[in-house]
Amino acid sequence: MSWIREGELNLLEKISANILKAGPMPKHVAFIMDGNRRFARKKNMERQEGHMQGFNKLAETLRWCKHLNIQEVTVYAFSIENFKRTKNEVDGLMELARQKFEKLLEERDNLEKHGVCIRVLGDLNMLPLDLQQLIAKAVLTTKAHNNDVSEPLLSECLYSSNSPNPDLLIRTSGEVRLSDFLLWQTSHSCLVFQSVLWPEYSFWNLCDAILQYQLNHKSIQKARDVHREQQASQQLEADRASFCSFHINNMGKAKNTASNAGTRSSERLAGRHKPAAEPIKKKPAPKKAPKAKKAKAAENGNNKAEEPKAEATEAK
Amino acid sequence: MALLYSLLWRLLLVLVHINRALVSWFRARLRSWKGRLWERAVAALLLPVALAGFPDHQKKLIQNPNANANPVTENRTAGRRSRWLSDGRSFEKLPVHIGLLVAEEEPSYTDIANLVVWCMAVGISYVSVYDNQGIFRKNNSRLMEEIVRQQQDLLGADGSKYNVEFLSNGSDQHQHHVLSCRPTLKVLSPEDGKQSIVQAAQQLCRSVENKERSSKDISVSMLDTMLRESKNTPDPELVVKFGPVNSTLGFLPWHIRLTEFISLPSHRNVSYEDLLGALQRFGVCQQRLGQ
């Protein structure tokens, strides 16, 4: 079964969605996908089939989220505690994961079309090696689909993308405005307004301007550092949000205009996002669940809470 | 040889700094000298001006002998108000929107408050205050308190005429200030600059993706509308920059394409005359708009 579900909402669903969207909408939703095995028991299926249905439901939920403009979805896939399950079940889950990630690689084009970007969190070292490799491949494959519009991205989209920002901007003839010239690129440049008319510009005028630049250098450098820090913390926030999740980036048609930019952005981000195999900080929320599972496991041995979605293994 | 040049360069910088220090010291001395003279002149002229210019006000005082305000203070503030208003009218042109860019460490709230009150008193409708570290934004309430205080001090009880609307970023209020003629203050930070543009771009991408727009619809005017939507104010025609740093420091890159930049050495102990000087310079600026 595919990761991507096509199809619009039906009329009633559309109306309901529009009503909901009139109010404030969550931008990031997390799911604890719980109840696969109880479902299987109820339907007289194998447990494994229950997990499979769980995955199908995930795909369908992602479609709904897309229609509701929920940009980011995090799912609780598998816990370290889940390793305590029977070998049979754990192996079954790992096999499901293998199939799903392999499918993901096959569906690469479709995922690209829908701008799906997948990231996997957790201590992936606890997974079987071949699965780690698959995940790494899947993450790297879809990484290019991440196309967050950001300040660096916009800079790359400008005509001046091949040049660094000007350090010094000089305007002659006494006018003290920018007249729409390089407004973005000169936000932290040294501006020197000189009264000399351009045809009368001399070497000494230039030296004077450069001296101004030198006198301002330290304070402008400091201001640039402040700006860079602000930019970094904004990027960190954005990264943290997407880093700890399945990142479903709904692009659709917009991709046509920004596809190159999107690729550039992801390349720029590539350095920041480490391959999935490396251990990543866990989110606090999932931490609670294992305890709950433990308690439940204690109760009746097999009533574990979460859905171990093998396609997003999150071993902690 | 290289060492010699390096030393000479350092010497040059030192000389420039000394030069600047001398100039600012001299300027301060000049102001204090002028100040004393000015005060005496105003005190001599004040009472007749108040009596001549504000008959209603005088009547009120007579009718309400128990009015809270000290009559002398009332006259002084009334005199100030009328002077500032006439100053504003005397300029060739006055900016509708002025930006106060503080490129100095540790801003002085009192001085900024003075500047804001003066700007509004001369008839400027929109005043934006900015610093590149977001200090004003973080201390929004403190700034507002200071402004209200200065408004009281400088404009007196009738200062409520210049009811200031405080707008900080994120406000979704629809401003009808054009109709209500209320001066509006905006407290800006670097988030209002490039970050706003990034957010607008993200919004556009999303709306194209949701088929609310086509990518062909994306245009300069569309982005302009979006960047203006939550701000709803005209572009700043004048930015007065305080401090020695010769940079816009991230001030509203999109909105400053035709903005005149006038620098003043510092906002600390800035005087009304300093502001007037900047406004006068703005008055004589001519824009050809590419022609």
Automatic annotation (TrEMBL), chain A:
Biased composition (Basic and acidic residues): 265-281, 304-316
GO biological processes: polyprenol biosynthetic process
Record keyword Iron present: no
Catalyses which reaction(s): n isopentenyl diphosphate + (2E,6E)-farnesyl diphosphate = a di-trans,poly-cis-polyprenyl diphosphate + n diphosphate
EC number: 2.5.1.-
GO cellular component terms, semicolon-separated: dehydrodolichyl diphosphate synthase complex; endoplasmic reticulum
Keywords, sorted A to Z: Transferase
PROSITE patterns, per the entry: UPP_SYNTHASE (PS01066)
UniProt key word Metal-binding: no
Domain of life: Eukaryota
Start-end of Basic residues biased regions: 282-295
Region (Disordered): 254-316
InterPro entries reported in the protein's UniProt record: UPP_synth-like, UPP_synth-like_CS, UPP_synth-like_sf
GO MF: ditrans,polycis-polyprenyl diphosphate synthase [(2E,6E)-farnesyl diphosphate specific] activity
Alphabetized Gene3D superfamilies for the sequence: Decaprenyl diphosphate synthase-like
Family: Belongs to the UPP synthase family.
Protein name: Alkyl transferase
Annotated organism of origin: Etheostoma spectabile
UniProtKB/TrEMBL annotation, chain B:
Catalytic activity: n isopentenyl diphosphate + (2E,6E)-farnesyl diphosphate = a di-trans,poly-cis-polyprenyl diphosphate + n diphosphate
Keywords for this protein: Endoplasmic reticulum, Magnesium, Membrane, Transferase, Transmembrane, Transmembrane helix
Pathway(s) it belongs to: Protein modification; protein glycosylation
Gene Ontology CC entries for this record: dehydrodolichyl diphosphate synthase complex; endoplasmic reticulum membrane
Its EC number(s): 2.5.1.87
Keyword Cytoplasm: no
Superkingdom per UniProt: Eukaryota
Signal peptide range: none
Broad class of enzyme this protein falls into: transferase
Compartment(s) where it occurs, according to its Swiss-Prot or TrEMBL record: Endoplasmic reticulum membrane
GO molecular function: ditrans,polycis-polyprenyl diphosphate synthase [(2E,6E)-farnesyl diphosphate specific] activity
Protein name, UniProt field: ditrans,polycis-polyprenyl diphosphate synthase [(2E,6E)-farnesyldiphosphate specific]
Native source species: Etheostoma spectabile
